[in-house]
Amino acid sequence: MTRESRSTKGTLLRLGFSDPERAFDHVGELGEQGEELLWILARTADPDLALQQLVRLRDAAAEQDADPRALLEELLDDEGFAMRLLSVLGASEALGDHLCRHPDQWRELTDPALGCTRPAAYAVRAGLLEAVGADPVADEPVATLADHEALDAIRVEYRRVLLRLAARDLAHHVGVDDAAAELSDLAAGTLEAALAVARQRVGEDAHLARLAVVAMGKCGGHELNYVSDVDVIFVYEPAEGADPGRANKVATQLASHLMRVCADHTGEGDIWPVDANLRPEGRNGPLVRTLESHRGYYERWASTWEFQALLKARPVAGDLALGRAYVEMVQPMVWVAAERERFVEDTQAMRRRVVEHIPSKEAERQLKLGSGGLRDVEFAVQLLQMVHGRADDQIRWPTTLSALAALTERGYIGREDGLALHESYSFLRTLEHRIQLHRLQRTHVVPDDEEALRRLGRSMGFLKRSAESLLDQWGRHRLEVRRLHQKLFYRPLLSAVARIPGEEARLSPEAARDRLAALGYADPSAALRHLEFLTTGVSRAAHIQRTLLPAMLEWFAEGPDPDAGLFGFRRISEAMGSTPWYLATLRDEGEVAQRMAHVLATSRYATELLEREPQGVRMLGRDLAPLSAEVLTEEMRASASRRDDVEAAVRAVRAVRRRELFRIAVGDLLGLTDVGDVGAGLSRLTDATLQATLEVVEASVRAARGLEEAPTRYAIVAMGRYGGFELSYGSDADVLFVHDPVEGADPQVAAQYAQAVANELRRLLSLPGGDPPLVVDADLRPEGRQGPLVRTLDAYAAYYAGWSQVWEAQALLRADAVVGDEDLRRRFTELIDPLRFPEDGITTEQVLEVRRIKARVDQERLPRGADPQTHLKLGRGGLADIEWTVQLLQMRHAGQVPALRTSRTLEALAAARDAGLIDEDDAALLQQTWRRVSRMRNAVTLVRGKPSDQIPSDPRERAAIASILGYPEGSSEAMVDDHLRHTRTAHAVVDRVFWES
């Protein structure tokens, strides 16, 4: 071309070509005819690709046609044809390749009726059957072409029809529902032609079985993608007089061959896989079944999700009468599935499977399965159909958009919401079609490279700022789908109990109860009463609650106990009353509201804390890491100092403790705080509580006794799990009280003072109140309950020197002097170290005594009726087994291995491993089991609201515990199985190491 030509490189760039150099050369190859087509090329999805493929097609057509100018002349003479062909070439590399292999098919797009007429399904079927040499009007068409020719012929004819459809779709904007329906008809015709080839392969025996192909999923719903697996179920019956066994074999052969005909790769490529995994028993079940066999399975064994899948069942090939009989048989079962006992669990499992199929690297670009994606719409529509379709046959449509229209028309969805959802779903489906059309590949991931996004944007009509405009629109529709997904289920529930203005869909209370039951609420009537309380009226609070509750109700429903979540939310909302920041925080800070819903629907313990401390709502949006003992002690001191009497001061200390218990519990529930940090956090919190309370009580006792100075130094020694930094939510604080009279003090005065302080501290911390009491247990002191509550340091020294038994030395392994006078704490530690960490270890007789005590504990301490396999503390392989094993290693070897001189179980276990006292694998197994059982023990308390060492039998409580431990929904039995497996193997290690058996 000359510089004077209209197609300068600058012009090409302005017209949308990305590579003007190459485009300039291609236009030059086409001459003036190419220049005339530029304005149409500029409107295609990818002008560069369209131009490049046009040159290839021109060359291929020239080799086949006597007149090489025919294609270009036709393009110039017929603008409609030019728009159709160039739109296809610019959007689909795969169809461009097909045209270059079969250049005669460009004439298909010259049909003037193509833009306004959808081909009849029977015509598509006939064309595919004729392509393989089968008679379209025969009862059982049989292919006559040679097998390899038939396979190629199906593919060529399939793509010929697909080419015409793509041209209509791209150039004439036929609508995603029409395109999907035509793709479904094309798939049905392809299955029929594949069955004709299968009959030819089977031979004369093919007539022994009647075989129906029932489409499921998108093909069954008349909403297939350009590229998708075609889900089917095969139904057969023996032909009249045929042997049933032989008929089954023939039907299986026909189905197997049909699947291979569609999936095998030939010189003409492949079509799509035929997926029969929706059949009874899935891939493990027989490929074909009779009607009665299907009936027996669905009546006895089928899960709810299988009936949900049957919403879209449609006979498409083979014996259509048999296929219709199958659909008529299963349809009544579909519409009572919502009444099944496990409807909620199965529906939730279906949603879980959808989420689990999303690769993490694709989650944000998943058009189908991601948040705000196609599945959100389809799931919402299908669940509404199953809930309300029992009594309303007008909403029983298999196609998503048709069902959505019916639900809107019948009042289950508001008109504006129905239209908005239709628009968003149509946009997402169109985008899915355009993505797949490019290479005819099965994908639902929006690409992230600029070139692909630009092509997609232009194919969707965004000719300027194509990529940016596409992403903006996609983001808008995703948010809209997510919002409406929540609103479809939950907003009409509110309108059933509250006067909400506007044209909101108003469910009857009965319909609202049905929907709540379907969403997992065990007491729908009570839930409706809570909603009525929260939303009725015209106050600002009621208005905000109506805004909040659609999302909150969904988050409650995702938890193990939605009823508890909603009831807890009502109680907290009542407690907060008109507090101005409360509802505004929930409305404006989504993370706070979602965390709150999760906590309320999972944990009775945390809910009760929040009810007593509603200000904790603010904490949900902040850092939930446990605070240090020093920070907590200072806050407790400051809070106590502002109170006039001792009880008020200790209540102030306990209020800080209550708030921090909530912080730790929420961090645990949300998976943000490790089990080791939970134990450490609870122990630090107890340190601070005891330290602040001790200071308050000492001041009070001094004042009551007229003392200016304390007559004795005071310390509190942590014992047991408290001393091991391993407290759980329900643990008492095991302690020893020790004092040391100051020089010149009267020993009796000092002892009376120390006794009074200990008694008052224990009384004040155990008083009923708005927080869980802190039980201070001193039963591990010398002589137990019979001995004095408080002893001097010298008295402890005398007792341990003359009377101490091996179990007391073992108990002191976990002693940690943490509260009170620092020098006294140091001296107490120096006193007990030689006793608990003897230089030469313990004697053989003492080892036997430890084992005798352990055997007696195993026999006598397990509660009556408790299951030794699932008791978390005293069960086989439980916490006691592991801790006694570690403690025996410490008593025997800590004198020689300094690293063993620790009160913490896991640190001691690691030191024993490093010193070669326990096998590395055994140590790892004990550590893992200890952590798992400790987490479960904490979770039991969080769920039940009170401590327990037994795994509960209640299914909802087990589900909540499994949720806290990170198991997916429906995995509570797997959680128990894992627990039994870990404790069984841990018990075997205990046998080897502790019992040396």
Note the topology.
Layout: H1 9-14, H2 20-30, H3 32-36, H4 38-41, H5 47-64, H6 70-77, H7 79-91, H8 93-101, H9 121-131, H10 147-172, H11 176-202, E1 209-215, H12 217-220, E2 230-238, H13 244-263, E3 274-275, E4 288-289, H14 291-300, H15 304-309, E5 314-318, H16 320-334, H17 343-356, H18 374-388, H19 400-409, H20 415-439, H21 450-459, H22 466-495, H23 509-518, H24 524-535, H25 540-558, H26 562-576, H27 580-588, H28 590-600, H29 604-612, H30 616-619, H31 629-641, H32 646-669, H33 675-705, E6 712-718, H34 720-723, E7 733-741, H35 747-766, E8 776-777, E9 790-792, H36 793-802, H37 806-812, E10 816-820, H38 822-836, H39 844-860, H40 879-893, H41 905-914, H42 920-944, H43 955-964, H44 972-993
Parallel strand pairs: 2-3, 2-4, 7-8, 7-9
Antiparallel strand pairs: 1-2, 1-5, 6-7, 6-10
Number of strands: 10
Which oligomerization state do the chains in this entry correspond to? single chain
Structural class comes to mainly alpha
Mean pLDDT over the full residue set: 90
- Determine the N-to-C terminus distance: 94 Å
Approximate strand percentage: 5-15%
CATH class identity of the domain at 686-836 = Alpha Beta
* Number of helices, counting only DSSP H or I runs of 4 residues or more: 44
* CATH homologous superfamily label of the domain at 686-836: Beta Polymerase, domain 2
Main pleated sheet? 5 strands, mixed
Radius of gyration: 38 Å
Tell me the overall shape. elongated
Which CATH architecture of the domain at 686-836 would you pick? Answer: 2-Layer Sandwich
Q: What is the share of helical residues?
A: 55-70%
EC number: 2.7.7.89, 2.7.7.42
Protein name: Bifunctional glutamine synthetase adenylyltransferase/adenylyl-removing enzyme
Domain PII-uridylyltransferase/Glutamine-synthetase adenylyltransferase: 349-489, 853-993
Region (Adenylyl transferase): 501-997
